[in-house]
Structures are given as structure tokens and as C-alpha cells.
Amino acid sequence: MWLKVFTAFLAFVTGACSGLKVVVPSYTVHGIRGQALYLPVHYGFHTPASDIQIIWLFERHHTMPKYLLGSVNKSVVPDLEYQHKFTMMPPNASLLINPLQFTDEGNYIVKVNIQGNGTLSASQKIQVTVDDPVTKPMVQIQPSSGAVEYVGNMTLTCLVEEGTRLAYQWLKNGRPVHTSSTNSFSPQNNILHIAPVTKEDIGNYSCLVKNPVSEMESDIIMPTIYYGPYGLRVNSDKGLKVGEVFTVDIGEAILFDCSADSYPPNTYSWIQRTDNTTYVIKHGPLLEVASEEVAQKTTDYVCCAYNNVTGRQDETHFTVIITSVGLEKLAQKGKSLSPLASITGISLFLIISMCLLLLWKKYQPYKVIKQKLEGRPETEYRKARTFSGHEDALDDFGIYEFVAFPDASGVPRVGFPSG
Ligand SMILES: *[C@@H]1O[C@H](CO)[C@@H](O)[C@H](O)[C@H]1NC(C)=O
Ligand SMILES: *[C@@H]1O[C@H](CO)[C@@H](O)[C@H](O)[C@H]1NC(C)=O
Ligand SMILES: *[C@@H]1O[C@H](CO)[C@@H](O)[C@H](O)[C@H]1NC(C)=O
Ligand SMILES: *[C@@H]1O[C@H](CO)[C@@H](O)[C@H](O)[C@H]1NC(C)=O
Ligand SMILES: *[C@@H]1O[C@H](CO)[C@@H](O)[C@H](O)[C@H]1NC(C)=O
Ligand SMILES: *[C@@H]1O[C@H](CO)[C@@H](O)[C@H](O)[C@H]1NC(C)=O
Ligand SMILES: *[C@@H]1O[C@H](CO)[C@@H](O)[C@H](O)[C@H]1NC(C)=O
Question: In what residue span(s) does the Ig-like domain sit (predicted)?
Fold first, then answer.
């Protein structure tokens, strides 16, 4: 871009010096075979001119330039060999090539001569490429039946029927695929080889093909990759799960759900363990343990997930403990009390006693003060009033609550009271 601006500037400067400038908007023009191609040229000069001459030459790599056509004022003199192919309408110096063929690829040179007070002359060169547009690519995948993770390889081939100078790019979920330890490309980039495939290779693949005149993307293809099982886990609709232990209340029927990530989906089987014997109790992802079946307190189960294509399996062990909170407590009551229970009991007893004492005291002080007042002089009465709350330590007994009132102003009070 900047180079273009700079060269345009240079052309302007040199042209300005000679009083003639020839400008082309683009130094490279990409054409489509069979269509017309227009090569725009602008020129300008500042001297009076009697004759304006325009000449077009064509040069292919390392060959002599060929004369195509020329003009003086408004009359065109074509090379008779190419007269039907190249058109110019002087004084407009732009050239029209129609139809464009592969053999027309090369450099086109335009030279403008101005005859006036002396002769001014300037020229420009335009590079022309000729291409066939790309047709929609198609992706072929091998093996089409799919590949097993870490075992199989996969080859994606991008096929294009027509188009020249093709540049291939592979996209996965719309983003370019890069070379990695498992991904490799053919020299042309039209083949993507994945060896071995992994679960991470699953995605929406497409092939993008470009050339100077067009670009097309294939339909999306999703390779089949067999994997798993991964992340086997058991969940239940009820009960408390801690690690591999499910704790449930007695009398409840629980539904267990075993799941693992796998393609194709796993086949599941459930195994129950009693003493040393194990036996398969069910096939399928769900297991219901009905209350009648929950005869034992603790039962060990195994859920086994098997992928019949990858040939791999995984299993998870879990334990079901049947409890009932109420029944357990009752069962423990007869046995020795735990130290915690003893402390709780003693504390409860103390609190209740203190409450009773407080209630009694709340009623009693009036009686005591009344008795005292009846038999005492006034001074003593005042004293009694002053100290009535502190005469007896029992009077102070009670439940005290510390209540913090937030300052109305919202500013915490810090420091000492001034009074
Ligand atoms: C071109 O045009 C100019 C003025 O319009 C005229 O003087 C000159 O003779 C013309 N040249 C030719 C070759 O016709
Ligand atoms: C030259 O002719 C083309 C159409 O044939 C036109 O678009 C273009 O503007 C012309 N250029 C000048 C400088 O008149
Ligand atoms: C022609 O060019 C000469 C020298 O370059 C100059 O002295 C003269 O004034 C020019 N004449 C016109 C008409 O521009
Ligand atoms: C997958 O490719 C690796 C290396 O390219 C090769 O060793 C292996 O045999 C291939 N496996 C299959 C199943 O074609
Ligand atoms: C792949 O394409 C399908 C539909 O063609 C779409 O549902 C899915 O979300 C796409 N996956 C990604 C990862 O883009
Ligand atoms: C359980 O099996 C182990 C070894 O497999 C054996 O030593 C043990 O005696 C068995 N216990 C019972 C109760 O069968
Ligand atoms: C795998 O299991 C599914 C059903 O679970 C069955 O339809 C399929 O045929 C099995 N495939 C093989 C290769 O055994």
C-alpha cells in the first residue's frame, strides 16, 4: 500500500518535472480467463501539445516486447495480428483486452508522448495475471467409517474440479488448522493427515480454496472418531453423596444414574457385591434400588461402562449406606452417653435452674425492700434505694445482653467524652 503511494508520488514528481505524468491505479491486475479485462491509465501535462501519441507494448518473461497498438491524436493504429483483441479510445489511454486468455499473462507497458515545445514522454508497466475461478471444493475423508482414538489415523483430502493457482487452507470450527504433533499437511496443503486421531480432533472441518480471482469453501464435514469412556460417574436422585458413599434414609427407593462420555454410547452394567461374591444385577444406565431390596445397611455396587468399538471400559465403585436419623438416635440412647451428650445435659440443667432462680428473684426483691423500709429511718431508706440493685449479688443475676447502637450520624465515636 505504502509502496504504491510512494511510487505514485515518484511518478507524480518525475512527471511534474517533465510536465507529463502517467498514472495507473494498480500495478497488478488479476483477470479471469474468457472475460474482458480493462487496464485503466490516466495521464496529464501542462504544455501546449500538437500531437498526443499512446503506445501499448506487451512483454512476457524474458522475451522481446511486442507492439500491440498505438495512436496519434484520435486515430488508432493496431497490430493487425491482435486488432480484434485490444481496444483503445484515444485520447483515453486505457486498454481493453477481450477476451482474456492464459497467453495474455505478462507485463503491459503504456508509453505516452506529447509533441509540443519539444517532446515529453512517460511510461508505466502493469502486470496482468489470468486465472480460472475456483469451483466449490469437496472434502473426502478416509477412513469414511471413522477411526478409533489413539489407534486410527485419518486423512482429509480437498478436491477441486476447476481453478488455477489454488491455495488450500483447512479450517476446524471456522479457524485455521495448524501443523502439530498429530497434524500434517501435503506440500500443496490439499491433504490433512491426522495420526493418531484423538477426541480433540472432533469438529467441523472445511477446506477453503483461494486464487487471485476467487475463493470457495467446502461443505462442513464431521469426522467420526470413536473414544471413551471418560469421566465415569454415578449420581442418585435422592440421598447424600460424600465421595463414593451414598447415605439414604431407610424405606426410600433410590434411582442411580451412571454416565460417561463416550462415542458410540457406552453399554452399562451394574454389579452388586455381597461378601466375596459379585453378580451382575442389571444392564443399562439406570439402577433402581427399591426399599425391600435395601435389607442390608451397607452394600457395595459397581457401575461398569463399556465402549464396544474402542474396546475400552471403566468402572466405578460406590457404597450405599441405609440410615434413619430417628432410629439411630433411639438405638444409641440405651448405650453409654457420649461426653458431648453429658456436657449438653449439664449445661441444659444449669440454664433451666438459673432461669427459675431469676424468676423467683424478680418477684422477691419487692418483698425484701418493703420489709426493710418498714423498719428503717429515712437515711437508710435513701441508701437502700441507692444501693438497692447492689445489696445482694443475686439481684444482679440474670441474662445480660450487649447491644451496640450504631451512631445516628454514621460516624463512629472515637476518643474520650469531653465532659
Ligand atoms: C493532432 O492534433 C493537433 C491539434 O489538434 C494537430 O495540430 C495535429 O496536426 C494533429 N496530428 C495528427 C498527426 O493528426
Ligand atoms: C477511459 O474510458 C473508460 C471507459 O471506456 C472510462 O471509464 C474512463 O473514465 C476513461 N478515462 C478517462 C481518463 O477519460
Ligand atoms: C519553449 O521552450 C523554450 C525552452 O525550453 C522556452 O524558452 C519557450 O518559452 C517555450 N515556448 C512555449 C510557447 O512554451
Ligand atoms: C497411523 O500412522 C502412523 C504414523 O503415521 C503409522 O505408524 C500407523 O501404522 C498408522 N495406523 C494405521 C491404523 O494406519
Ligand atoms: C458443527 O456444526 C453443527 C451443525 O452443522 C453445529 O450444530 C455444531 O455446533 C458445530 N460445532 C462447532 C464446534 O462449531
Ligand atoms: C474372600 O476372598 C479372599 C480372597 O479372594 C479370601 O481370602 C477370603 O477368605 C474370602 N472371604 C470370604 C468370607 O469368603
Ligand atoms: C455396540 O453396541 C450397540 C448397542 O449397544 C450395538 O448396536 C452395536 O452393534 C455394537 N457394536 C459392535 C461392534 O459390537
Answer: 137-221, 223-319
